[in-house]
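Predicting holo structure, 2-acetamido-2-deoxy-beta-D-glucopyranose bound.
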Amino acid sequence: MLGKVIIILVTFLLQCALSGSAVTFQTPDVLTISYIKKDPNFYKYCKQQLKNVVGIRDEGISNVSCQALCYSANDDPPRSFSNKKDNGGDFDKWARSKEYRGYIHIPSFSVSCDAKGYISSDPKDPDYSDQHNPTQNPEKVVNIERNPYGYTKEYTPYIIYSSADIYTNDATFNGIRWSKIKDNTCLSIFDARASRLSTIARYIQYFLLKYDAPFIYAKVYMTVCCNRQVSVTVHRTVFPQTSLYINGTKVSEQAQTELGKFILSGGKPAKDFKIDEDGNWIIKHIKELIKNFSLSADGHGNLAPYGQDLTWNGKA
Ligand SMILES: *[C@@H]1O[C@H](CO)[C@@H](O)[C@H](O)[C@H]1NC(C)=O
Ligand SMILES: *[C@@H]1O[C@H](CO)[C@@H](O)[C@H](O)[C@H]1NC(C)=O
Ligand SMILES: *[C@@H]1O[C@H](CO)[C@@H](O)[C@H](O)[C@H]1NC(C)=O
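Done. Tokens:
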């Protein structure tokens, strides 16, 4: 009798040790920010890249282009955010400042696992844009005051922020997706955003440098397992600067590099043109020039080359 009880007890304890109990836990809040970093050497670097990599011989064109790029650089985003949720919180205020080229925000969400260590419920899509915007069609989500696709900061000569041109070439590129992986013991979450210069800034670049603007992007690959292991990898373009935040604190940053290669990746326009005028003349006649040359359609063009990833691994 006692032997039987011991066997049952041991079996029970063994089962507990092997399978644990059902758990529900919160994932960390994940945020990536893309922005053009202000740097005292950026003007010099830009001119050197235009000359040596892009092959711009006219110093006037090079001066105007690099000045415009320096003016459009962003303020550094904060090193940490204390409130990611509320309208009027520090993250919301920053998002409404429009001082970025794009961001991806995957708020903390709950994951439930059964006693055997399998994902037991599909998480609800986190509402990363704002409470009023669904996440299913992010390319249709355009909140002019706060937009994860970012803004082009233009100096006209006062500063304005124009909405970026959203990548629509590949309908499946932008947005969030979920799946269960590794025999249902982990969740895979993917979110991506691609956009480029506002239409008017893109035309100005096109006439100055004879290259179309490429699309920048960030792709977040997040894995959350029932053993609470979390990994985040951000695949991003060489330009601009990209930061990764976990629970509101910056954990990693990759520098903006290879500006020349980035510009070349936009590609030459289909229709060739020659303008023997300086940058100021081009800006003055921009509307007429847009009419005269057929340029690539909004949303359609090349993606910029990818650069160094950002990664984070930890426990939920
Ligand atoms: C992130 O915040 C959650 C609570 O929202 C907490 O459970 C978790 O431990 C934090 N993770 C890290 C890596 O700071
Ligand atoms: C370009 O700017 C430099 C200063 O950065 C100046 O010395 C040079 O004269 C300018 N060239 C033209 C053609 O405007
Ligand atoms: C645009 O094309 C028209 C007609 O060919 C021409 O008269 C005009 O000068 C062009 N404008 C510019 C800014 O090149």
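Residues 11-17, 127-141 have pLDDT under 50 and may be disordered.
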